[in-house]
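In full, the data.
>
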Amino acid sequence: MDNGVLVLTDANFDEELAKNDLMLVEFYAPWCGHCKKLTPEYEGAAEVLSKNDPPVALGKVDATIEKTLAERFGVQGFPTLYWFKGGVKSEYNGGRTKDTIIQWVSKKSGPPSTQVTCDALKEKTDDSSTKFHVAYFGAEDTALYTEAHIGYANAEDKIVFVHADLACQEQFGLSGDAKIVLFRHFEEKVNAYSGAADKDALMTFVKPLMVPTVFEFSEDEIEAIFGNQQNTAILFRDPADKDADFMKVFEEAAKTHKGKVLFAYSGITDGIQERLAEFMGVTKDNLPVLRIIMPADMKKFEMPGPVTALTVESIGTYVQDVIDGKVKPFLKSEKPVDNKG
């Protein structure tokens, strides 16, 4: 055991697999930078999940030493994580932070939605270690529960789903018939769904609410934009312009046109932001500039004119024109070739 994580070898792997009905296993290499970054998150998740009922074990395999195990499970890159339930292996497709690991494993360990008491629900939704809860209030014989809530729960690994008695909604200032609510820990905490008893409609409601109205692009938002394939307006600017008037206009536009696209801002020089700028074809000479990305087909659009002249209305009009297919995508071109002679 190393900081709560099982150290697995060719000699003890099958024994530990037999002892632990639920186990997440990381195959790593000591020299791997991504593995080193994952280590504290993985150990933090191991501490929490060891207290689950039933407990969940987290293990690790040094693939540079335990080469037989790595070959046995077809490991080709690092880190590679596999989920074992009853000894059966499946892919791990959760996040790489403590909270996202806990959420994914907790979801895979039990039923799609857990029944909770009013007190337990209050405790869960107050606990910021889990970013999102989707809660259903009401009887379990409705289409809203079976088609929308359970349907979405079966398809989503990154959100914790629970259900409770209808009366439990009162402690959150809600009333009326059966309903589904998204709980989060920023902006409006309680977000009641009023759409159809349909999984896809509920998903469309929840996805945009998993990020703030305006957010800085970072590693944490990659999944929200590219994983969930949500159209996003991204304002690239120098960090020194964080209090510029055009930023205030952009933030106001995000509130006014919320739901049409996501609204993000980014620099172009640091880490993931530098890679985003390169992907979007943005250089220092372009700043500030507003671009829109449609991840489903990787189309990119550049709003014409100076960012300093933007208005809430003009941003909204341009966003709608992009959605309606009235704007041609922006194409990043190669540098001109000198063909003299």
Notes: The two ends are 70 Å apart (CA to CA).
